[in-house]
Structures are given as C-alpha cells and as structure tokens.
C-alpha cells in the first residue's frame, strides 16, 4: 500500500510539473512550404513545439484568421477546425502563390499558483525579470493569481512567389513581426523581429528562439530587444523555427497579482 501511495504522489508531481511548464501555444505545419491549389493543415500545439497535450476549443479563441499574399485578412470559421484528443487543426485553402500568415489569439484565463510553482515557471519559461523582482522583494514564497492570454502566428509559403504579407501587424495585445520575409532567407542568415505590446515596441524584452531537429527541440539564442523593440537572431541551421516571449506585468489589484501575455512565431528555413 505504501508503495502505491508513493507512486501516486510521484505521478501527481510529474503531472503538476507538466501542467506548470506545458504552457506554450504554437502554430505548426508538417511543412511550411505548401502547394498552390491545395489545402494546408495547421496544427495548434498546446504544449511544446513537438507535441500538443490538449486540444484548444474554438470557443476559447478570440480571433483566428489568415492573411493572404495580397494582404487580405480572412476570419477562420469553426467549420475550418477539427480536433482529436490532444490537438486541434485548422484547414486553409491555398488559392494564391505567395507568403501567408496564420494568426490566433485566445481569451484570457486565470490561474492560482503556489509561490514555488510560480518561481519555477518563471525560471523555466523565460521570465527572468519577474523572478529577479520577486527575489529582491523577498516574495518567493508568496502565492499568486495570474491572468494570461496567448497570441500566436505562423508564416508559411505557397509556391515560389514571395509577398509582403509576412510583416502584417494583426493587432494582438502582444505580437512578433518579422522585418524580413523568412522565405527570402537562407541558413546562416539573420532575422530581425519586432516585438510589440498594444501596438508599441517592447524595449528590453527577453526573447527566445529554437528549432526542431531530429525530433528534438534545439534551443537557439536568448536575446533582449533593442530600443526599437527589435530582437535579432541568427538562423544557423535549416528546419522549423520558433521565436517566443512572455510579457509579465505586476498588477495593483488585491485579487490578481500578475498578467502575462504570450507570443510565438513559427516559420521554416531551408
């Protein structure tokens, strides 16, 4: 009986850790290079860059839209979505050659966390400034209530023709906007990405990058945005890439301590 109890406790700890850390939301295609006059299937990964751990319901989305090569933005319909036990999918009709942007924004949610769990999440998920502030204020043991939302984009390419839709600002609370078309870049190039909050450049924001290689996630560079809100990364290998940041703000509210706004951007480099 005691062994069973210990196993259950260990299992619960693993599940809790997964829940604390498995926060990211990514839009990902099997290939970000698609054919014209085809249907692209976009996976909505609610977990890690490799796998989703829970399907996202359409009702949770505040926005889901596609920006076509000509800059036209079309709202996705519930009929365009499907899901299985772990993953949601969005089907997109590809009728034009050029560069496309898929964008999704979630409703706000709130979560209660023990101080230790919140600190581990800050450390693991790339929010060092808030962790440093909690240490300075001697608040590491303090429980928190956090409001969070996620705002994600993917850029993919149909045919050989490049278009300027990649730099479309969709107007989410936080957003990553590349300053070069990823599909005009090659391995070894650098890309500059504008980080926005409420439409304004985020200065000194901590931003991370990474890529998929051989079924694993390879961490890229961790950088800070400059005075213009630009984060610059070297794309040192081919593959599917992501860029991400979490903007965390302390709130002056007795019932709510922090608000986080999550942004991810995905694309592929050859």
Tell me what you see in this structure.
The protein has helices spanning 2-21, 115-124, 128-136, and strands at 24-29, 33-34, 38-47, 61-67, 73-75, 81-83, 88-94, 98-106, 109-113, 144-158, 174-178, 190-197, 200-201, 206-213, 216-224, 230-234, 239-253, 256-269. With 270 residues, the chain is mainly beta. The protein has one domain (23-269). The strands form 3 sheets. Strands 2, 4, 5, 8, 9, 10, 14, 15, 17 and 18 form a 10-stranded mixed β-sheet that branches. The protein has a 4-stranded antiparallel β-sheet with strand order 1-3-7-6, with no helix packed on it. Strand 4 (61-67) and strand 5 form a beta hairpin. The radius of gyration is 19 Å and the shape is globular.
Biggest sheet, in brief? 10 strands, mixed
Strand content: over 45%
Which oligomeric state applies? single chain
Q: How many extended strands?
A: 18
In the predicted model, the low-confidence regions spanning at least 5 consecutive residues are 1-22
Number of helices: 3
Order of helices and strands: HEEEEEEEEEHHEEEEEEEEE
Radius of gyration: 19 Å
How far is the first residue's CA from the last residue's CA? 55 Å
SS-based structural class? mainly beta
Outline type: globular
Determine the mean pLDDT. 93
What is the total number of structural domains?
Answer: 1
Portion of residues within helices: 10-25%
């Amino acid at each position: 009986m005691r062994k069973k109890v210990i196993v259950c406790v260990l299992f619960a700890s693993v599940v809790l850790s997964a829940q604390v850390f498995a926060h990211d939301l990514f839009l990902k295609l099997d290939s970000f290079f698609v054919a014209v006059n085809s249907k692209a299937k976009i996976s909505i990964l609610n977990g890690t860059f490799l796998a989703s751990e829970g399907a996202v319901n359409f009702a949770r989305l505040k926005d889901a839209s596609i920006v076509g090569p000509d800059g036209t933005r079309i709202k996705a319909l519930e009929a365009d979505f499907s899901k299985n036990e772990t993953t949601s999918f969005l089907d997109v009709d590809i009728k034009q050659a050029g560069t496309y942007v898929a964008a999704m924004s979630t409703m706000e949610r709130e979560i209660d966390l023990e101080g230790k769990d919140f600190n581990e999440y800050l450390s693991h998920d790339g929010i060092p400034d808030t962790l440093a502030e909690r240490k300075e204020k001697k608040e590491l043991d303090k429980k928190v209530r956090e409001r969070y939302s996620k705002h994600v984009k993917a850029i993919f390419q149909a045919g050989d023709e490049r278009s300027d839709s990649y730099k479309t600002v969709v107007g989410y609370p936080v957003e990553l906007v590349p300053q070069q078309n990823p599909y005009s870049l090659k391995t070894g190039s650098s890309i500059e990405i504008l980080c926005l909050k409420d439409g304004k450049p985020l200065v000194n924001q901590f931003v991370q990058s990474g890529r998929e290689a051989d079924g694993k996630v390879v961490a890229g560079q961790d950088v800070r945005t400059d005075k213009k809100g630009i984060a610059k990364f070297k794309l040192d290998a081919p593959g599917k890439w992501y860029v991400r940041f979490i903007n965390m703000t302390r709130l002056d509210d007795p019932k709510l301590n922090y608000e986080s706004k999550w942004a991810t951007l995905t694309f592929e480099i050859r």
